[in-house]
Amino acid sequence: MAETPESGRKGYKPSQSDAGVPASEVEAWFVCEVLPLEAALMHFLQSSYRKKNEISDLRQDVYAQVIEAAQKQIPDRVKPFLFTIARHLLINRIRRDRVVSIESVADLDDLGIAVDAPGPDRTVIARDELRRLRAAIDKLPPRCRETIVLGRIEGLTGREIAERMGITESTVSHYVANGMRALADLLYGAPVDIGDCI
Amino acid sequence: MNGIAHQVENKCGAEEIDARAAQWLARRHFYKWSEEDQIALDAWLAESRNHAAAYWRLKAAWERTERLAALRPPILSQSALVTRKRTWVVVAGVVTVCIWVAAFGIAAFPLFATAKQTYATAIGGRTTITLADGSQVELNTNTIIHTELTAHQRTVEVEKGEAYFQIVHDSKRPFIVMASNHRIVDLGTKFLVRDSQNRLEVVLVEGRARLETADRWDQKHSAVLTGGDVAFATADSMSISKKSADVVTNELAWRQGILVFKHITLGDAAVEFNRYNSTQLVVTPDIASLKIDGTFATGSVGPFARMAEFALGLHVQDENGQIVISR
Description:
Strand content of chain A: under 5%
Order of helices and strands of chain A: HHHHHHHHH
Radius of gyration of chain A: 20 Å
Oligomer: heterodimer
Structural class of chain A: mainly alpha
Structural class of chain B: alpha+beta
Strand content of chain B: 25-35%
Helix content of chain A: 55-70%
Order of helices and strands of chain B: HHHHHHEEEEEEEEEEEHEHEEHEE
Number of strands of chain B: 16
Distance between the termini of chain A: 44 Å
Largest sheet of chain B: 11 strands, mixed
Number of strands of chain A: 0
Helix content of chain B: 25-40%
Distance between the termini of chain B: 81 Å
C-alpha cells in the first residue's frame, strides 16, 4: 500500500496474473504510446500548475506511475489513463502546496473532457518526423551538435570524438549526455532551456 | 498522506535522475560497454520507476535519431563542414608535399606515397592478402580487388566478387572499401563484402563500419553497421537487419572452403556452387524452389548433384560440361 499510494485510480484494472508484463513490452508500449503524448501532457501540466520549475519532476512522476501500472497490465486506452494519473498527481501537489485556486480546479475539469479527443493523425506524425529530427539537431548548441553528429552520423566512439574535436573524453561525455537530454525534450515536444549544454 | 510522502521522496530527483540516465546512455553508446556495465545499468533501472521512465525516454529519443543517420539530411553537412575544416589542414599539408614531389618528377611519386596493387582469384580460388598496414583481406572465388594505401587513406575497390576484411583500425588513416557504387568506411572492423548482380551485401562481423552511397551528392543512403548487421544495398535502396551469430558464421563458411545451406532453394544453391566451379549446375525451373539443407565443400558439385538425385529423387545428367538437375 505504502509503495503504491495511487493505485485504484480510474481506467486501470489490476491484472490477476502475478507474472506481470515483461520489461521490454512495457518499454515498447511506453515509447510508442505514452511518449508521443508528451507534448499534450506538458501543455496540460504547464497550464495547470504554477510552479514551472517542478514541471519536469511532475512529468517524471507521472511516467513512473504509468510504468508501474503497465508493469501489471498494459492499459487499453492510453490517453485517458495517462491524464487520469497526471490529474491525480497534480491534485496531490496542489493540496500539498495548500494553494487550491479556483482556476486550477476548473482547468483540470476542462482538460479532463478533452482527454478523449483523438491524437494527431499518425501519417502526419510520420511525415513530420524527419523535419522534427532536423530541427531538433539544428537547435542544439554547436559543440553539442558536433558531438552528436560525429557520434550518430559518423559513428565515432567517445574517444574518437575527443580526438577529432581536440577536447577531453569527459567533456565529450558531458556534451553528449546534455545533447541526448535536449534531443528528448525537443523531439517529444516540450519547451526546454538547452543553454546549459555548453 | 502516504501519497504526498511518496512524491516528496521523488520530488527533487527528476533533474538528477535525468542527468544520470543520460550518462548511462552516453556511456553505452560511445564507450566500451561490458557485461558488468549492463548489470549495473539493469540494477539502476530496477531501483526506481523514475529511473526507467527517464532512461527509456532518452533512449527512445536517441533511437529516433538513428533514422536521421540513415537518411542523412542536408543539415548534417553543416556540421560535417566543421570537421572538414580540420581535414583541410591535413589535406593542405599533403598537397604541399605532392607539389614538392612533383618538382622531382612524376616517376618519384609512386615510390613516395602510394602503393597501388591489384589482386584476383580464379573461379574456385581463395587467397588471403596482408596489406602493408597489417590489415587482412581474404578473397573468395572469382574476385578482383584494387588496393591503394596512402599516407592519409587506405582504399580497397572490390571490382567483383566477395572479400572478408579484418582491418587494423587507424582513425588518422581511414580504411575505405568501395564496392558496387557504395562506400564502406571502417570504424574498427571485421566485415564481409559481396558484390553480386548489382546488389551489394555487407555482413558486419565485429566492430562498426559506415555504409553509404559512393556519390557524394546523393547521401540519401547511409547507415552505421554494428556486429551482426547484414546490409543489402542496390543503386536506390538499402536494407539492414540483425542476424544471429549462426547466420553470420555461415556467411563466412567459404573461408574454410565450405558452403552452408539452411533452408535455401535448390536454385539458390546452384547459383552459389556456380560461383566456385567451372562445371555449372543447371536446375530446371519446376524444381528450383525445392528447399534444401546441407554443408558442402565449395568444389563438390558432383556430391551435391548426387545428393539431389538420391535425397530428392531427382534426375541428374551431364550435358556439355553442365550438370542438369531435373525431375
